[in-house]
Amino acid sequence: MTHTLRRTVALALLVGMTAVGTVACGSSGSVQTPSTVSGAPGGKLTIGISFDQPGLGYRDGDTYSGFDVITATYVAQALGVPKENITWQRADPADREKLLQDGDVDLVFSTYSITDERKQQVDFAGPYFLAHQDLLVRRNETDITGPDTLGGRVLCSVTNTTSSAYVTANFLGEIQLVEKPRFSDCVAALAASEVDAVTTDDVILAGFAAQPEYKGKLKVVGKGFTDEFYGVGVPKGDTEMVAKVNDALKQYIADGSWKAALDQTVGPSGYSIPSPPTPGSV
Q: In the predicted model, what is the mean pLDDT of the chain?
């Protein structure tokens, strides 16, 4: 992991994202209808996503929205699967590997960082996005400016995440780490002053900070300290699916849809959108 890259994260992410199936996103372009990749299987897909990450994977009744959802829909269409043949499955961080191993989902798009440890259990296509681990704190907090200022504080993260693993490996002993099942649980605990900070990827934290119940109460520190390459989880050994998803992701980036989807879902926050990574490179 590199400690030198930084992203400035603003706090005004629009939570009223465009629902799946809507492709227009203003002057920055539109998400295109993809061409099917060679050997696309068609049929149906069950796809695991986050249900509680505004701007990335979010469920509101029967509506699913966010960058991961748009990306998954595009990839499914490139695989010959229309959006009406997608079944969305909740994929919390602690459950992602098991969902793939048990055959409960075909693919996982849920801010799923590619790591060597996870590659022992599942395969990955991608990456399709680069984020950075950061901290979320209460608005009036001035002493917490990075992980090295958390000594004696209570930090919340989620079980089976790279965020939790990084803190455990580098700071445990100085920091009291509390782990919860979902980031929404950590953010609620922060707002209630039960913990001093929450850590995960900057783009996820920005979405929570901008939710109506937290806007003006919480802030992102804005000093990212790791690199997190988001990949698509694929059942272990399905190299054919990995290749097809990578072909779809390359098309997604090349035809402008990747940038259009980010402009639509993440861009309004002021988040500095990075250059696209190269699928198959990590």
A: 89
